[in-house]
Design brief:
elongated; alpha+beta
C-alpha cells in the first residue's frame, strides 16, 4: 500500500504541486478575510436558555452590556475643564453606531423639587456647564449625596468621573468598543483615562490577539529553527519541515477566513500549536531518510524505503493527535469546538504534507549526497534511563503506581473557577482598570433581574422590587442596585417628604407621567410596561463567586415569585383581625429594619400598631429621638395600611416607639 502510494505521489508530483499552489493562493485570500473576535459571549451556545434570556434583556432594555470610560482628576472632577471634556466625549460617543445610551455627569437624568412641584430633566442642562467655583461646590455636594450619582457616575472621593456607555445587543461590540477607545484617545487631551466593562475589554483583547501572533509565531519559528539546526547539518533539513508547517498553518487559518470563522482568544494559538506539533512529522521522515540514503544507491529508493518504514507510524501519530483535538467537539463553547476542528485539520494537513510534499521536493535531487545526522547527548541519557527501567522494572512500576495514586488523589480537589482578569499581567491596562472600577465604582459586571407583571406600575409590584433591592444591597459582592422604583420613591419623597412607593395606583401614574418619554427610562421598563429591570453590579470576576451570588439571588427571587392581591383592610369583614395582624407584623419588621431598632422590639411594635393604644406592660423604653419625626410621618401617610385617624394617637404611638 505504501509502495503504491509512493509511486502515485512521485508519478503525479507536478499535478500535486499545481494543486498545492492553487490551494495556497486560495488560502492567502482567506487569510486576508480573517476577522478577529474577542467577544466570549459569542462562544456561548445559542440554544441555552440563559443565553437566550440574556439576549432578550439586551433587545428589550437598550442593550445588556456596558462600557465605561473613566476620567481621572488629580484633585477634583468638579471643574469646568473636566465637565467640558465630559461633555465633548459624551456627545462624541452618542454619534457611534451601536451605542444606545451614554450617561455621564453632563447627561444624567435628574429629579429636582421646584416651586410648582417636581421637575425631571438633566443634571446639567445642555450648554449650561457651571462657571464659578461656588456653583461647582454646590453641584458637588448635591451629586455626592444622591444614590443615582455617587459611586456610579462619580467616585466618593470625587477624583474619578465615569461615562457609562450602553451597547446594542446585535452589534460587533469589539468593533464599537474599539471606536470608543479611538475617539477617547483622540479627544482626551491631558486627562488620564481608564477603560472598563466587557465591550471595552473585547476591543483591547482583539488588539492583544494580533500582538500575540506577531510575538508568538516568530518565537516559535526561531525555536524550531534552532532545533532543526541542531538535528540536521543541512539547510535542506531546516527549510523542508518549515515549508510543511507554514503551509499547514496557512491552509488552516486561510480556511477559517474562507468559511467565516473569526480568530478568538482560543484560536489565536492554532499557528503556534501547528508549528510545534506539525513539524514533528517532517522531522521523523527526514531523520529516517538521511539514514536510508546512506544505504541506497538512488535517491528515489531512499524515499520509498523511508516512507515504507515510518509512513504508517507518522499517520498513526497524527491520527491520535487529531482525535485529541477533534474531541473538543463535545465542548459546549462554540469557539472551543472551532479551535478543536481547525487545529485537528491543521495536524492532518501537516502529516499529509510531510509524507507527500517533502518526498516530492527530495525527488528533484540529482545525487545521493550523504547527510550526517547529529545526535543529541540527551539521546544517550534516554537510552540509559530505558536500560535502568527494564533492569529494575519492579521498582519502576511501583514508583509509577505511587505517582499515579498521589496525583489521582488531587483530582477531587480541583476547582472550576475562572477569573479572566487574572489572565492579564498586573500592569496590563485591562487589569488596572478593573481594579479601579471595583474600588471606586463597585464593579463593572452587570447583574440584571427582570420583573414581569401585567402592570409593572402597580404599587404592589414596585414594593416587591423595592424589597428585592433592599436585599441586594446587603450582598457584599453586589453594588448599586437600581430600578424604576428608585425614581418613584425619590419623586414621592420630594413631593410629600416621605420616600416610599405610594400605595395608590393613581399617585404612581401621576408621578410616572413626568418620567415617560425620558430616554433613560427605556433601560428600566419596556414599552408595554409589563417588564422592568433591576440593575446591579458585581464586585468580582470570579465565576465561583458569581455562581454563589446567582444561587443566592435565585433563592431570594423564589420567595417573591407568585400572585399578589392588593386588599384594603377596611373592606374586609371576615378575617379582618387576622389580616390586620399580618399587616402589623410586616410593617413592624419594616420599621425595625429602616430605623435600625433591635429585632426584639418587633412583636411589641406590631401589637402597638394593631391596638393603637398605650400599654406600658408591652414596652420598655426605646431611646431613638432622631427617628421620632420620621415615624410620625410614616403613620400619617398612606404607606401605613393600619389607618389611625387620631393625630394624637399617632403621636403617642411614635413617642412610645422611640
Amino acid at each position: 500500500m505504501i509502495k503504491f502510494t509512493t509511486d502515485f505521489i512521485l508519478r503525479f508530483k507536478w499535478i500535486i504541486i499545481v494543486f498545492l499552489g492553487v490551494l495556497s493562493v486560495v488560502s492567502v485570500v482567506g487569510f486576508f478575510n480573517l476577522k478577529i473576535e474577542g467577544d466570549i459571549i459569542n462562544t456561548l451556545p445559542k440554544n441555552d436558555p440563559f443565553v437566550s434570556r440574556f439576549k432578550d434583556v439586551g433587545e428589550e432594555f437598550k442593550g445588556n452590556l456596558v462600557g465605561m470610560v473613566i476620567i481621572k482628576s488629580n484633585l477634583d472632577v468638579f471643574t469646568r475643564k473636566t465637565f467640558e471634556k465630559l461633555s465633548e466625549l459624551t456627545e462624541a460617543y452618542k454619534g457611534i453606531e451601536g451605542v444606545t445610551e451614554v450617561t455621564s455627569l453632563v447627561s444624567a437624568m435628574d429629579i429636582k423639587k421646584t416651586d410648582e412641584g417636581i421637575e425631571v430633566g438633566e443634571l446639567v442642562e445642555p450648554g449650561h456647564i457651571p462657571v464659578t467655583d461656588r456653583e461647582f461646590r454646590s453641584l458637588k455636594l448635591y451629586v455626592l449625596k444622591e444614590k443615582s450619582f455617587n459611586g456610579k457616575l462619580v467616585s466618593a472621593n470625587a477624583k474619578y468621573a465615569n461615562i457609562i456607555i450602553r451597547f446594542a445587543d446585535n452589534v460587533d461590540r469589539g468593533k464599537v468598543g474599539r471606536e470608543v477607545i479611538d475617539i477617547t484617545e483622540k479627544l482626551k487631551g491631558n486627562f488620564k483615562v481608564f477603560y472598563g466593562g466587557f465591550p471595552m475589554q473585547i476591543a483591547i483583547v482583539n488588539s492583544m490577539i494580533i500582538k500575540d501572533l506577531y510575538i508568538l509565531i516568530p518565537i516559535a519559528v526561531l525555536i524550531l529553527v534552532i532545533i532543526l539546526l541542531l538535528s540536521f547539518s543541512s539547510f535542506e533539513g531546516i527549510y523542508l519541515p518549515l515549508i510543511v508547517v507554514f503551509l499547514s498553518v496557512l491552509y488552516s487559518v486561510g480556511f477559517m477566513g474562507i468559511v467565516g470563522v473569526a480568530f478568538s482568544i482560543f484560536s489565536d494559538i492554532v499557528p503556534v500549536i501547528l508549528l510545534a506539533v506539525g513539524s514533528a512529522y517532517g522531522i521523523h521522515f527526514l531523520y529516517k531518510y538521511y539514514e536510508d540514503i546512506k544505504k541506497e544507491k538512488y535517491n528515489v529508493g531512499a524515499i520509498r524505503k523511508s516512507l515504507k518504514e515510518v509512513g504508517i507510524s507518522i499517520i498513526l501519530a497524527a491520527l491520535t493527535t487529531f482525535i485529541g483535538f477533534i474531541s473538543l467537539l463535545f465542548s459546549q463553547l462554540d469557539d472551543i469546538r472551532k479551535f478543536g476542528i481547525f487545529t485537528g485539520f491543521g495536524v492532518v494537513l501537516a502529516m499529509l504534507l510531510s509524507i507527500v510534499l517533502i518526498p516530492i521536493i527530495l525527488s528533484f535531487k540529482k545525487n545521493t549526497k550523504r547527510i550526517k545526522v547529529k545526535k543529541f547527548d540527551i539521546s544517550n541519557l534516554m537510552i540509559l534511563f530505558a536500560r535502568v527501567s527494564l533492569k529494575r522494572y519492579r521498582i519502576t512500576l511501583i514508583l509509577a503506581l505511587l505517582v499515579f495514586v498521589l496525583l489521582a488523589l488531587g483530582i477531587p480537589g480541583l476547582k472550576r473557577n475562572v477569573d479572566l482578569i487574572n489572565y492579564f499581567p498586573k500592569t496590563n491596562p485591562v487589569r488596572v482598570s478593573e481594579r479601579l472600577i471595583r474600588e471606586e465604582f463597585g464593579g463593572g459586571n452587570p447583574l440584571e433581574i427582570v420583573v414581569a407583571s401585567e402592570d409593572i406600575r402597580n404599587p404592589v409590584v414596585l414594593k416587591v422590587m423595592e424589597h428585592i433591592e433592599e436585599y441586594l444591597e446587603k450582598i457584599q459582592m453586589l453594588s448599586r442596585p437600581y430600578s424604576l422604583t428608585d425614581f418613584i420613591v425619590k419623586m414621592n419623597g420630594l413631593l410629600i417628604g416621605h420616600s416610599s412607593v405610594p400605595g395608590s395606583k393613581v399617585k404612581i401614574e401621576n408621578l410616572y407621567v413626568l418620567l415617560e418619554g425620558e430616554p433613560s427610562m427605556a433601560m428600566f421598563i419596556n414599552q408595554e410596561s409589563k417588564k422592568a429591570l433591576i440593575d446591579a453590579y458585581m464586585k468580582t470576576n470570579s465565576t465561583d463567586s458569581m455562581k454563589m451570588v446567582a444561587r443566592y439571588v435565585d433563592s431570594l427571587l423564589g420567595d417573591y415569585d407568585g400572585d399578589y392581591v392588593y386588599v384594603n383592610p377596611d373592606s374586609v369583614i371576615s378575617g379582618k383581625t387576622v389580616l390586620l395582624e399580618n399587616y402589623a407584623a410586616r410593617y413592624a419588621r419594616l420599621i425595625i429594619s429602616v430605623f435600625n431598632l433591635k429585632k426584639s422590639y418587633s412583636s411589641k411594635l406590631a401589637r402597638l400598631l394593631l391596638d393603637a393604644r398605650l400599654n406600658n406592660k408591652y414596652y420598655t423604653k426605646i431611646k431613638k429621638d432622631k427617628i421620632l419625626e420620621g415615624i410620625k410621618r410614616y403613620l400619617a401617610s398612606d404607606e401605613c395600611e393600619i389607618y389611625i385617624k387620631s393625630s394624637a394617637k399617632r403621636n403617642r404611638i411614635a413617642e412610645k416607639i422611640v
